[in-house]
Amino acid sequence: MAIKILDLFAGVAGLSFGFELIRDGSDNPVFELHRAVEIDKYACETLRKRYGTEKVIEGDLTKPEVHEQVIRECKGEVLIVVGGIPCQSFSLLGPRSGYGKQMEQFKQDRRDHLHKEFTKIVSELKPHIVVIENVKGILSKKDPDGNKIIDKIISDFEELGYNFKNNEGEKYLVLNAADFGVPQKRERVILIGILRNWKDIKVPVIEPTHYDLNSKKGVSDKKLLPYVNLFEAIGDLPEVEPKITKTGIPKNKWKVVEEHNKKIRNGLDSITFDKSKFEEHISKISESGKQFLCFVRPNGYEYLDHHTARSQQLSDIELFKNMNEGETAGEFLNRNPKLASELIKYNMDTFRDKYRKQRWDQPSTTIFAHLEKDGNRFIHPKQARTITPREAARIQSFPDDFVVCGPVSKKFRQIGNAVPPLMSMNIAKNIARLLQ
C-alpha cells in the first residue's frame, strides 16, 4: 500500500507530484497524495482536474473549519506532510527588492507566520516525515525581534520531536533544480524533518544527478550528466508569434494592427502533438536532454496544451528582435543606447534586468509567479516573444500531460509558484530509502 502524503499550501502540488513518481521494485507507486490544501481557486481547479474532488481541500488554513477538516480527513492516514510555505514575504524579488516604502509592511508581513499553521497540523498528525520548501530569502529574513525565521521554524519542529540534522551537521539544504535535470537554475531551501520516535537517524543529503559544464565541479564524476539546456527542453515545440497590442499605436493605425493580428499564428490552447518534429529533435540532443524529454512526454500523450504566445507591444517585439541571447535590458542599453532609449519604456535606474533574453545553450533563469504580469525576463532565444505557459511548464519539468486550469495569466502564476517535480522526485527517492 502506498504511503499517503498531505500537501499543505500545495499550489498545483509539484512537491507531492515528485513523490508520486517514485516506484518500487514491482513498479508500484511508493507514495500517494491523500489531500492537497490550497487557497487559490485556479490551482484548486487544476488539482481537481488531475486528482479528483475528494483529494482537494480549498480554503485558508488559518480558518478553524479548514484546519479541522484537514485533521479529520488526514489523522491516522498520512505518514508524510509536505509543503511550500507561502514565500512572497521572504522573496528577494518582491517586497525585499529595495522599495523603502514597502519595508515596514515587509517587516510585519502576516505570511511570515503561516509556518505556524504548518506546525499546528504536524503537531496533531505526528507524521514520520515533514518536507518544507522555500525561497533562499528565508535564510536572511528576521522577525521584529531580530531572530531568524528559519531558526524559529526548525526549533518549533524540533520541539515536536523532529530531527533536521544531516551527516554534514546542517539542518537545511540549498538545492539547485538544475542539479537534478531541470532546465532551470532555481535555488531553493529544503527542510527535511524525521520524527525521532519513529527513527532516530540523520537526514539524507540529496546528491546531484547533473552538473554545470561551465564549472569544474562534477566533471570528474562520470555518474553525473551535464545540465539540460533550454534548446533541449523546448526546441521541439512549434513556432508561435505574438499578436501586437494597441498600446502605443495611434488610433488611425488600429485597423492595420487588427488586420495584421488576423494573420498571426499565436497558438491554440490544445493541439495535436507533432511526433515527427519531436523525434527529429530528440535525435539531435545529448543524453541529458533525451532523458528529460522522455520524462516530460509520458505515455504517448497526444496533445500539446497551453502553447500560446502572449500579445506584446510593438516596441517590445522590436526590442526582443534586437537583443542578443543571454542579454539583459541593461546590457542592451550599454551596447546600443540610441535604439534602447527608443524601445525601452521604463526607468532604467532600477531592475536593469527587467528584460532578459534566455540562452539556448543554458538552463533558463529562475521561473517565478511574476510571469502572471509579464514574461519580459523570459524572452525566447530565437523567437521575438516571451515564453508560453507550456514552455514555462517544461522549464519547471512538468510533463506535457499536466493540464493547468484558468486564464493564461493564472496558468503562468500556478506554474511559476510550483516546485519542479524532477527536483522533488530526487528528494522523494532519498526519503523512500528511509521508509524501506
Describe what this molecule looks like in 3D.
This protein is of the alpha/beta class and 436 residues long. The protein folds into 2 domains: 233 residues, Vaccinia Virus protein VP39 (Rossmann fold, 3-Layer(aba) Sandwich); 188 residues, DNA Methylase, Chain A, domain 2. The protein is built from 16 helices and 12 strands. The radius of gyration is 22 Å and the shape is globular.
Helix content estimate: 25-40%
Structural category is alpha/beta
Total of DSSP H or I helical runs spanning 4+ residues:
16
Number of strands: 12
- In N-to-C order, the SSE pattern is EHEHEHEHHEHEEEEEHHEHHEHHHHHH
Indicate the overall shape: globular
Indicate the radius of gyration in whole angstroms: 22 Å
Q: Can you name the CATH architecture of the largest domain?
A: 3-Layer(aba) Sandwich
Residue windows where pLDDT falls under 50 for at least 5 positions: 91-101
Report on the biggest sheet: 8 strands, mixed
Fourth CATH level, the homologous superfamily of the largest domain: Vaccinia Virus protein VP39
CATH C-level category of the largest domain? Alpha Beta
Q: In percent, how much strand structure appears in the residues?
A: 5-15%
CATH topology title of the largest domain: Rossmann fold
State the end-to-end distance.
12 Å
* Tally of domains: 2
- Mean pLDDT, rounded to whole units? 91
